[in-house]
Amino acid sequence: MTVVMSKHSGTASARLRADYMRIKRDPVPYVTAEPLPSNILEWHYVVEGPEESPYEGGYYHGKLVFPMEYPFRPPSIYMITPSGRFKTNTRLCLSISDFHPDTWNPAWSVATILTGLLSFMLEKSPTFGSIETTDYEKRQLSQQSLSFNLKDKVFTELFPEITEMIRAKLVRRVKEGAAADKTSGIVNHKDTGNSSSKDNGASK
C-alpha cells in the first residue's frame, strides 16, 4: 500500500513539474500560478480581472489542491479572495474539479484547469460554491480585492511582483483621490465666491 501511494506521489510530482514548466513557457491569459515551495500538490493562483468584465481591476487569489493520484484524479478548487462569483474557501463544483472525477481527463493540465476556471468565472451559470451578486457588487469587490490580498501572507510571499503592482496601484489610487478632493474643493470655493458676489450685487 505504501509503495503504491509513493508511486502515485512521484507521478503527481513529475507531472506537476512538467505542467509548471509548460505554464512558464506559455502563460495562461489573465492567470498566474505557483506551487507552494514546501508542497507541490498545493498550488495558488491569481486571476487578474479581464477588461470589460465586472472583475476588471481586481486580483483574485485561490488555490488548487491536487491528489497524489494526479493526473488520474482532478484537484479541489478554491477561491480565497471575495469575488461576488464564488464562495470563499469552499470547494467549487466544476467539471474540472474533484466534484466530477467521472468527466475528468488525465490529459488535462494545470493550464487547462485555470483556463476552465476563468471561463466559468466569467459566466453566470450557478453551481455548488457559486453565489449571485450584481455587476455593481462585483465591481466593488474588485476594488476591495487589492487591499484584501495584501493581508494574505501566502499571497505576498508567492506573488511578490503582483504584490508590488498592487501596492503601486493603491498608492496611485490614494493620490488620485487626494487630487480629486483638492479639485472639488477649488470648484466649491469658486462657486461659493461667485454666490457671494451675486448676493453682494443684489444687495446694492
Structure description:
The chain is globular, with a radius of gyration of 24 Å. The chain is 50% helix and 13% strand. A four-stranded antiparallel β-sheet has the order 1-2-3-4. Helix 3 crosses helix 5. It has 204 residues and is α+β, with helices and mostly antiparallel strands. The N terminus is likely disordered. The chain has two domains: 153 residues, Ubiquitin Conjugating Enzyme; 46 residues. The chain starts with a helix and ends with a helix. It has five helices and four strands, in the order αββββαααα. Strand 1 and strand 2 form a beta hairpin.
Helix content: 40-55%
Tell me the radius of gyration: 24 Å
The domain tally reads: 2
Q: H/E series, N to C?
A: HEEEEHHHH
Give the spatial strand order of the biggest sheet.
Answer: 1-2-3-4
Query: What is the count of β-strands?
Result: 4
CATH architecture verdict of the largest domain = Roll
> Class of the largest domain, according to the CATH hierarchy?
Alpha Beta
Mean residue pLDDT: 90
Q: What would you call the structural class?
A: alpha+beta
Number of helices: 5
Fourth-tier CATH superfamily name of the largest domain: Ubiquitin Conjugating Enzyme
Name the beta content range: 5-15%
Q: What ranges have pLDDT less than 50 throughout 5 or more consecutive residues? A: 1-6
Span of the ends, CA to CA: 101 Å
Question: What is CATH's topology name of the largest domain?
Answer: Ubiquitin Conjugating Enzyme
Anisotropy-based shape? globular
Q: What composes the largest sheet?
A: 4 strands, antiparallel
